[in-house]
């Protein structure tokens, strides 16, 4: 069966919904950049702590090859429990606080796309005009803030569940990888197989997490009910979900490859006199552009999954977005 006629309008609709609500892309990219900077703060602080403990300047540690630097930092922290405790506490505070911020932003973003996709009409069919695409635009500061406030408690619980799965899965992977080191010649092969399996497992978990966010926003339901709705959605639309996931994953991989090539190209001209002075602003622009592109791809996938979910839903249910903007006389 030819899948192109089936998947093309779905992805096109998702991209147009994301494009019509372009401020959401910028907000998401900004929130993601802030989270990464927050995570980098205790990591750099830990680097300075290690430098003070072992009597080495931080720049000397940065000159080491990354495996040597990681080994030196881990060994130094393990030999100084107080320093290790302080580092883990600071990292934990930043991760939890930054994650709560990301959950809040994600709640508003998904809710805006739910409203936009539902009220967009048939925007994926030609002719494509600005006024047609603008029908999917439902972003406003009021909608975003009210939606984020309404969904945040549920998104927070769902996010903490995801973090717990990450911790358990990562711990089991590290233990298994450590034990495989004692298997002789088979250790390297076992580690490779476990690494591939771990990456596939985390990818599946992330997909389920995204679908849960979509279902909770679309149905205005609890996390427990969301699991049932999500399971029914995947069973009904498993072909469509698989195709959208595959195409978006391929686009992300391709964008990552282009990003690596651009970084390597900028590194080559860094040594050229005068031209090398422009590398830093170019790298900053590339970083910003990369963040926007990846966020747009993620929002495109949300729009595509929303169409699949809306088509497969047996009994449409009003969302909290409708209830939030319903007139008092209508709700009475």
Provide the descriptors you would attach to this structure in a database record.
332 residues, disordered C terminus, mainly alpha, 0% strand
Give a verbal description of the structure:
The chain has 332 residues and is mostly helical. It has one domain. 82% of the residues lie in helices and 0% in strands. It contains 13 helices and no strands. The longest helix has 40 residues. The protein is globular, with a radius of gyration of 23 Å. The termini are far apart.
SSE layout and pairing:
Layout: H1 4-20, H2 22-54, H3 58-62, H4 66-78, H5 81-118, H6 130-133, H7 141-180, H8 186-219, H9 223-236, H10 238-269, H11 279-312, H12 320-324, H13 328-331
Helix pairs in contact: 1-11, 2-5, 2-11, 5-7, 5-8, 5-11, 7-8, 8-9, 8-11, 10-11
Q: Give the topology string: H per helix, E per strand.
A: HHHHHHHHHHHHH
Low-confidence stretches: 314-332
Major sheet: none
Gyration radius, to the nearest Å? 23 Å
Q: In percent, how much strand structure appears in the residues?
A: under 5%
Helix segment count? 13
Global morphology: globular
Structural class: mainly alpha
Number of E-type strands: 0
Distance between the termini: 50 Å
Fraction of residues in H or I helices: over 70%
């Amino acid at each position: 069966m030819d899948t192109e006629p089936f998947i093309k309008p779905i992805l096109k609709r998702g991209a147009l919904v994301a494009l019509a609500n372009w401020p959401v892309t910028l907000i998401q990219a900004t929130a993601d950049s802030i989270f990464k900077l927050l995570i980098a703060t205790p990591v750099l602080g830990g680097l300075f702590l290690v430098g003070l403990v072992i009597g080495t300047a931080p720049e000397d540690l940065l000159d080491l090859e990354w495996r040597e630097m990681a080994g030196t930092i881990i060994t130094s922290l393990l030999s100084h429990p107080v320093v290790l405790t302080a580092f883990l506490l600071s990292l934990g505070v930043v991760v939890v606080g930054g994650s709560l911020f990301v959950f809040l932003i994600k709640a508003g973003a998904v809710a805006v796309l739910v409203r936009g996709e539902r009220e967009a009409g048939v925007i994926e069919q030609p002719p494509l005009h600005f006024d047609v695409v603008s029908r999917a635009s439902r972003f406003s500061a009021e909608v975003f803030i009210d939606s984020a406030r309404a969904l945040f408690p549920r998104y927070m619980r769902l996010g903490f569940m995801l973090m717990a799965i990450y911790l358990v899965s990562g711990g089991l992977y590290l233990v298994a990888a450590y034990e495989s080191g004692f298997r002789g010649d088979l250790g390297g092969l076992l580690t490779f197989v476990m690494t591939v399996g771990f990456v596939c497992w985390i990818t599946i978990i992330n997909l389920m997490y995204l679908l849960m966010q979509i279902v909770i926003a679309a149905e205005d339901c609890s996390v427990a009910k969301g699991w049932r709705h999500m399971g029914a959605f995947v069973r009904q639309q498993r072909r469509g979900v698989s195709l959208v996931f595959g195409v978006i994953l391929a686009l992300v991989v391709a964008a990552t490859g282009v990003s690596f090539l651009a970084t390597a190209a900028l590194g080559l001209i860094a040594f050229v006199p005068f031209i090398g002075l422009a590398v830093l602003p170019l790298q900053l622009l590339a970083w910003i552009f990369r963040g926007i592109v990846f966020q747009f791809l993620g929002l495109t996938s949300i729009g595509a999954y929303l169409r699949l979910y809306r088509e497969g839903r047996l009994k449409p249910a009003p969302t909290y977005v409708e209830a939030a903007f319903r007139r008092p006389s209508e709700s009475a």
